[in-house]
Amino acid sequence: MSLLTVGTVAFDDIQTPFGEARNAIGGAATYISLSASYFCKDIRLVSVIGDDFPQAELDHLSSRGVDLAGLQIRQGEKSFFWAGRYHNNMNDRDTLDTQLNVLADFDPVLPEHFRQTPFLMLGNLTPAVQMRVLDQMEQRPKVVALDTMNFWMNTAMDGLRDVLKRVDVLAINDEEARQLSGEHSLVKAAKVIHEMGPRFLVIKKGEHGALLFEGDNLFFAPALPLAEVTDPTGAGDTFAGGFMGYLAQTGDCSFDNMKRAVIYGSAMASFCVEKFSIERLKNLTQTEIRERVGQFVRLVHFDAKLD
Amino acid sequence: MSLLTVGTVAFDDIQTPFGEARNAIGGAATYISLSASYFCKDIRLVSVIGDDFPQAELDHLSSRGVDLAGLQIRQGEKSFFWAGRYHNNMNDRDTLDTQLNVLADFDPVLPEHFRQTPFLMLGNLTPAVQMRVLDQMEQRPKVVALDTMNFWMNTAMDGLRDVLKRVDVLAINDEEARQLSGEHSLVKAAKVIHEMGPRFLVIKKGEHGALLFEGDNLFFAPALPLAEVTDPTGAGDTFAGGFMGYLAQTGDCSFDNMKRAVIYGSAMASFCVEKFSIERLKNLTQTEIRERVGQFVRLVHFDAKLD
């Protein structure tokens, strides 16, 4: 089945303790689409860029099955730009610069053939833009997933509450879950967030893995312990892309299949951080992905011998 | 098989955001012994206390199969005392007071019948004391496990290096593993630490679970996500007690059985934090423990459908 995603397509300047990248390709929708493209061959992207974005990168997205009919290209304007520096632990980062550029007045317009997509991933953007996309769907998608961040909780909480009522899966990090719910315990946070709308909650804990909640059902997926992390940028979006891509591929929203989707998302994120920017997501093979998922199996499976 | 443990038997003052306990029973050897007592019926404890330690608590340890022949009781002296305050996240804590008391000149003396114990858990103490215990073993134990902390790395690194050469399993937390190895990546840290002696390395990450390394073999056990954490004190020692108790019970040091030992240790730690001090470890049932391990199975198991 097809997957629609809305989010940024952007440039990033990235500094880590081990190197840096300037004007690297970034953006939530870029990572989500590329990651999902390994599972789902019909991906629809809604975003906005300036005339500074390399055509070769757009061509690459198209070649991976990403339909760019919903990508607005503004002549004479600049794409969204973010610059950040990671701390030694590679978990914390400082934002050095944010230039909204074309994103400042982004009004997403869904092409006619995007309006009945069964899987919808609303990347981190202002809740008003996320709502605008939802409002243009002619049919309620089978699964609506949403990412957001503390900034929108601080500045647009009413809008965020409204969108959350229409969302099936909320995928946010642990600090965001704590802020959104007002609860420190993630178990308690999940109960509060379920009440806000999302039936499923994915809490991304970076190098500490991810939790999936559905009512009293609970699943934990580790992050793969890696010898080297080159660049964590986009790992959360890559997770979301793998997760939603796998759901779109299988069309199965049982909790057992949601678990697999979390593992596939985690596997994709583990590739993402191996190189700067989107480099590692450009030419993965299905064999590499299956082998990586096999590593997750070996990492956590045990025979409890309870019988 | 039998398990010998050396470590503190002590009093703790504990403050958490949710309550406090004064003069609560604590100490590494207390937690280790109690936790292990659910798996292994022949536990030998080596420690030192003053004449201020309640006889009822010693009787309770004895009733759980803990042989106190190696527990020195110093008349007219006071037991080791620690006071700490946990931060809101319950992971970080400040030490408010440490009174070594009887521990200042502790010289462990192993009773004759302790000297051929096959499983040895060296709780967190000065490396010189840990070495003194090792030196009194008449036969090299089947498994020697050791806990230590940053303080000994800062003040007694040479002694620690010497002990590590004679250790099979090192069980420390993530920050300690980073300091000991000089590597931020835990995968790299494990390689460095293996070179120091321990064939197995358990890295305890608190609420983020635990990693088990043996060469290129890697296993991850989550911590159970809990709605309430009352008191994290002793969770690491309770983990170690469950881990070593399970190994002593089964006598099996294969990697598959080590995985189970990590899960049993994690299950015991998840009980420990539910109440202050050792309260929750006093009267668990085997049914409760099996059910808790079942929760770990459900938490992480998935069918990858890779075939």
Question: How would you describe this structure to a colleague?
Answer:
- 2 copies of one chain form a homodimer.
- By secondary structure, the first copy, chain A, is α/β, with parallel strands linked by helices.
- Chain A has one domain (about 5-300): UDP-N-acetylmuramoyl-L-alanine:D-glutamate ligase (3-Layer(aba) Sandwich).
- In chain A, about 35% of the residues lie in helices and about 25% in strands.
- Chain A contains 10 helices and 13 strands.
- Chain A has helices at about 30-35, 55-65, 125-135, 150-155, 155-165, 175-180, 185-195, 235-250, 255-270, 285-300, and strands at about 5, 10-15, 20-25, 45-50, 65-75, 80-85, 95-100, 120, 145, 170-175, 200-205, 210-215, 215-220.
- A 9-stranded mixed beta sheet of chain A has the order 5-4-1-8-9-10-11-12-13, with helices on both faces.
- In chain A, helix 1 crosses helix 8 and helix 8 runs antiparallel to helix 9.
- Chain A is globular.
- The model of chain A has no long low-confidence stretch (mean pLDDT about 95).
- At the A-B interface, helix 7, strand 13, helix 9 and helix 10 of A face helix 7, strand 13, helix 9 and helix 10 of B.
